[in-house]
C-alpha cells in the first residue's frame, strides 16, 4: 500500500516509520525544509528510543522518503499539530488540519482512505473534514473512506506502543471503519476497537483529561500539605495502600502536547457541562507560580540569588519541551530577578557540565524526572554556595546537602525568616 503522511513530528514520523517497516511504501511530508533535509540525510530530528534504528531500516529498504509535497497514494494520514486557540476556552486550532486536508485534495482518487490522527475536538471529522472532501466531489463511505484513529502512546516508548497498544478506529461510516481497520491491522498487534469518528475523538480527549484531573487533585493536595504543614507525599503513599485508591503524584505543572492541551478541547466543545475539567486546568496551570513562590521562600536567606534549574522538558528522558512547565518556571524566575542556570542533558543548548551549572548556586530546582537526576554527584553540590535541593518530581535518590520535595518542603520554609 502507498501511504502519504502529512506531518513528521513526534507522532507522524514514528507512524510513518512503522508502516514503512511493515511492507508499505511511505512518503512523509513536512512543511519544514530542514526536517525533510535531515531525514533524507538519514537522521531523525527528534529523540525517541529505538526510532533511529527503525528509520535506518526503512531507508535501507527504500520504503520511505521525506518530501515537501504529497503524492498520489492509497491512504493519507494527517498528523499535524493542533494547538489551542487564543480564545476564552482555548479551543482547538484546526488551521493545520484544514491546510493538510486541502494540500492532499489534488492527489486524492476514488477508493482512497483518509485518516486523521491529529488530536481534534469532538465532531471535527464529521463537521469540518468531511465537508471539505465532499465539496471536492467525493461520497464518504462509498468512493472515499474517512476515519479518526488517534494515537495512544507514551513518549520514550512510542515504537513499542504503536504496535502493541489497542487502537481506536473511528470511521465516519461502517465502510470507513473497515477500511481503516484493514490498514492498521497490518502493523498493530493490539486490539482494533471499532467506534464512530466522534466517539474516537472524545475518547482520546477524555483519556488525557482523566489524567489531568487526577494530577490536579494531587497538586491541590501538595498545596494543602504546605498550608497545613503535613507531608503530602506521605499522605499519598499511605492512601494508595487502600485497594481502591490510586492518587497521582504532584509536580511543577502539566505539559506536553496532550495533557496540557486536550482537556481544553472538551471544555470548549461543552463549556456549560465541564466545570470540573476547567477547574482542574486552572489548578495545574497555577503550579508554576506556586513553585516560583515556594522557591522564593527557600531563597529568602540564601547567600546569593543563583538558582540552577534541572530539567526543561515536560517529562523525563525525552527532549520535548512543548508546553513545558519547567521552561515556564525558569522564565518566571529570571523575570523575578534570579540568576538562573539551566541544565538538561536531553536539551542541546542546556547540556552543559553539571559542575558548571551548579557553580556558586544556592538552590538546585529539579523540574523534570530524567533518570540522570536520580543521583546528584557530590562534585555538583560541593561547588554550590548553599547545598540545597528542591525536588518537585521526587526523583532524587542519592545526593549531598539538604533535599526537599513537595511533601516536606514546609519543614525548611518554616525555619527561614521570610522577607516577603
From TrEMBL:
<dbReference type="InterPro" id="IPR017476">
    <property type="entry name" value="UDP-Glc/GDP-Man"/>
</dbReference>
<dbReference type="InterPro" id="IPR036220">
    <property type="entry name" value="UDP-Glc/GDP-Man_DH_C_sf"/>
</dbReference>
<dbReference type="InterPro" id="IPR036291">
    <property type="entry name" value="NAD(P)-bd_dom_sf"/>
</dbReference>
<protein>
    <submittedName>
        <fullName>Nucleotide sugar dehydrogenase</fullName>
    </submittedName>
</protein>
<keyword id="KW-0560">Oxidoreductase</keyword>
<dbReference type="Pfam" id="PF03720">
    <property type="entry name" value="UDPG_MGDP_dh_C"/>
</dbReference>
<dbReference type="InterPro" id="IPR014027">
    <property type="entry name" value="UDP-Glc/GDP-Man_DH_C"/>
</dbReference>
<dbReference type="InterPro" id="IPR008927">
    <property type="entry name" value="6-PGluconate_DH-like_C_sf"/>
</dbReference>
<dbReference type="InterPro" id="IPR028359">
    <property type="entry name" value="UDP_ManNAc/GlcNAc_DH"/>
</dbReference>
<dbReference type="InterPro" id="IPR014026">
    <property type="entry name" value="UDP-Glc/GDP-Man_DH_dimer"/>
</dbReference>
<dbReference type="GO" id="GO:0051287">
    <property type="term" value="F:NAD binding"/>
</dbReference>
<dbReference type="Pfam" id="PF00984">
    <property type="entry name" value="UDPG_MGDP_dh"/>
</dbReference>
<dbReference type="Pfam" id="PF03721">
    <property type="entry name" value="UDPG_MGDP_dh_N"/>
</dbReference>
<comment type="similarity">
    <text>Belongs to the UDP-glucose/GDP-mannose dehydrogenase family.</text>
</comment>
<feature type="domain" description="UDP-glucose/GDP-mannose dehydrogenase C-terminal">
    <location>
        <begin position="308"/>
        <end position="398"/>
    </location>
</feature>
<dbReference type="GO" id="GO:0000271">
    <property type="term" value="P:polysaccharide biosynthetic process"/>
</dbReference>
<dbReference type="InterPro" id="IPR001732">
    <property type="entry name" value="UDP-Glc/GDP-Man_DH_N"/>
</dbReference>
<dbReference type="GO" id="GO:0016628">
    <property type="term" value="F:oxidoreductase activity, acting on the CH-CH group of donors, NAD or NADP as acceptor"/>
</dbReference>
<dbReference type="GO" id="GO:0016616">
    <property type="term" value="F:oxidoreductase activity, acting on the CH-OH group of donors, NAD or NADP as acceptor"/>
</dbReference>
<keyword id="KW-0520">NAD</keyword>
Amino acid at each position: 500500500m502507498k501511504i502519504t503522511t502529512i506531518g513528521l513530528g513526534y507522532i507522524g514520523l514514528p507512524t510513518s516509520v512503522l508502516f514503512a517497516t511493515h511492507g508499505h511504501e511511505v512518503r512523509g511530508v513536512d512543511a519544514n525544509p530542514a526536517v525533510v533535509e535531515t531525514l533524507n540525510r538519514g537522521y531523525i530530528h527528534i529523540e525517541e528510543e529505538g526510532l533511529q534504528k527503525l528509520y535506518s531500516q526503512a531507508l535501507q529498504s527504500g520504503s520511505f522518503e521525506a518530501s515537501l509535497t504529497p503524492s498520489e497514494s492509497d491512504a493519507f494520514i494527517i498528523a499535524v499539530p493542533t494547538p489551542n486557540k487564543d480564545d476564552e476556552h482555548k479551543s482547538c486550532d484546526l488551521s493545520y488540519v484544514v491546510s493538510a486536508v486541502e494540500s492532499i485534495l489534488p492527489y486524492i482518487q476514488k477508493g482512497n482512505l483518509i485518516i486523521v490522527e491529529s488530536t481534534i475536538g469532538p465532531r471535527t471529522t464529521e463537521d469540518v473534514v468531511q465537508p471539505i472532501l465532499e465539496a471536492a466531489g467525493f461520497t464518504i463511505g462509498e468512493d472515499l473512506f474517512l476515519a479518526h484513529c488517534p494515537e495512544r502512546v507514551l513518549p520514550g516508548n512510542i515504537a513499542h506502543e504503536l504496535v502493541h497498544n489497542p487502537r481506536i478506529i473511528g470511521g465516519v461510516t461502517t465502510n470507513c471503519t473497515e477500511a481503516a481497520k484493514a490498514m492498521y491491522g497490518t502493523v498493530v498487534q493490539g486490539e482494533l476497537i471499532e467506534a464512530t469518528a466522534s466517539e474516537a475523538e472524545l475518547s482520546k480527549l477524555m483519556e488525557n483529561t482523566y489524567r489531568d484531573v487526577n494530577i490536579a487533585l494531587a497538586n491541590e493536595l501538595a498545596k494543602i500539605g504546605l498550608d497545613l504543614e503535613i507531608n503530602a507525599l506521605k499522605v499519598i503513599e499511605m492512601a494508595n495502600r487502600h485497594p481502591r485508591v490510586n492518587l497521582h503524584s504532584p509536580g511543577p505543572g502539566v505539559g506536553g502536547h496532550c495533557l496540557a492541551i486536550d482537556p481544553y478541547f472538551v471544555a470548549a466543545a461543552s463549556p456549560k457541562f465541564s466545570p470540573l475539567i476547567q477547574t482542574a486546568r486552572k489548578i495545574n496551570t497555577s503550579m508554576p507560580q506556586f513553585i516560583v513562590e515556594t522557591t522564593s521562600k527557600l531563597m529568602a536567606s540564601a547567600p546569593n540569588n543563583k538558582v540552577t534549574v534541572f530539567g526543561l522538558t515536560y517529562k523525563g528522558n525525552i527532549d520535548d519541551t512543548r508546553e513545558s512547565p519547567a521552561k515556564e518556571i525558569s522564565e518566571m524566575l529570571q523575570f523575578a530577578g534570579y540568576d538562573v542556570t539551566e541544565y538538561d542533558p536531553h536539551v542541546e543548548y542546556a547540556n552543559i557540565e553539571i559542575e558548571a551549572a551548579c557553580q556558586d548556586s544556592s538552590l538546585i530546582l529539579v523540574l523534570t524526572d530524567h533518570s540522570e537526576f536520580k543521583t546528584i554527584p557530590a562534585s555538583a553540590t560541593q561547588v554550590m554556595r548553599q547545598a540545597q535541593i528542591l525536588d518537585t518530581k521526587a526523583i532524587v535518590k542519592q545526593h549531598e546537602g539538604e533535599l526537599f520535595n513537595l511533601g516536606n518542603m514546609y519543614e525548611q520554609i518554616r525555619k527561614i525568616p521570610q522577607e516577603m
